[in-house]
Amino acid sequence: MKLYESATAPNCRRVRIFLAEKGVDVPIEAIDLAGQENRRPPFSDKNPMATVPVLELDDGTWLAESMAICRYIEELHPDPPLMGRDPREKALVTMWERRMEHEVALPIMQVFRNSHKFFEGRIEQVPEYGEASRRHALKRLEWLDQELADRPFIAGDEYTVADITALIGIDFGKVSGIRLGDEHANIKRWHETVSARPSASA
Fold this sequence. Notes:
By secondary structure, the protein is an alpha+beta fold. Helix content is 50%, strand content 6%. Helix 4 runs parallel beside helix 6.
């Protein structure tokens, strides 16, 4: 296998953390996003959507989308379980991972996509949508802080992929000025715990 990724992209970090938690080493080939290497062959032949990461399997299959890659690794290396053990756990982890993706990480990423100079001329930016996404993200951080008042991790008592998705989203918010404040005491406690894991520096 080989992982095509960029060190600065949050979804690539999600896969790196997941791999580190599993103790799985995969050769990495860096893709230059600033130089738009992702938007031209040979990379665009592998993934016409031009997004990273992409995992090349030994049989020549290409897997794009970070959660698809994580699911593949989970199936190959079920221990430690990061997506639940039984049907109930798997459903709960999936629920919370999707909430972290759609309600926290994605709005934070949309602030960057629609307001940062990095994307000028690369995509159609809508600054108003960026600011709406900022307001949405901040409201969801208030909600998440309340959720974390009575449990150590996003989906319950154990660290899962839902924590990874929340971490990469919240950390990426620093690029756009979205930071945890005094009003986020429970998230800060959680953030300190998950950031102390060796995988967080992957």
